[in-house]
Amino acid sequence: MRRVEPGPGQESVWDYPRPPRAEAVHRRAVVTHAGTVVADTDDVYRVLETSHPPTYYLPRTAFTDGVLRPAQRRTVCEWKGTARYVDVVVPGAAPLVDVGWWYPEGDVSATFPELADRVALYPAPFDEITLDGERIEPQPGGFYGGWITRDVVGPFKGGPGTWGW
Predict the structure, then answer these.
(1) Strand, helix or coil at 164?
(2) For residues 81 and 111, what is the distance between their CA atoms, to the nearest angstrom?
(3) Which of 14, 66, 80, 87 lies at a 20 to 30 A Cα distance from 102?
(4) In the prediction, which pLDDT does 75 show?
(5) Mean pLDDT of the residues in the chain
């Protein structure tokens, strides 16, 4: 693994902190599934953690009514608390199962109160997710939900051979 040196206007994920940090950003996120915009907001937080592209959290209220369906899956993050998962359901399309997660008010850790009731998404299954009009790339692998844009450089954890980083 060799760190990519960031160019002008870029960040290296290797400069991100551990434990992670959450911060509000002024960017517009648009999420599309089955030709339908399921979320559109500029009320965005990102979580930065060493070796990961940012994970973006959107308010549950930014999603079109009825597209988020509670799922059974739950996981625990050592930093953020107990996550509950959601499916994204659009009429006429196959549901995207366990495609997002959120931390309800009572389940989010005291370290990350700003993430309460915000949804993060695994981007790969969606038709498209854009950030300020740029189509994002999903973080490699299926475990993490980072969004890769041209303003972040890696290498990124998640692909084959990166588990031990």
Answers:
(1) coil
(2) 9
(3) 14
(4) 92
(5) 95
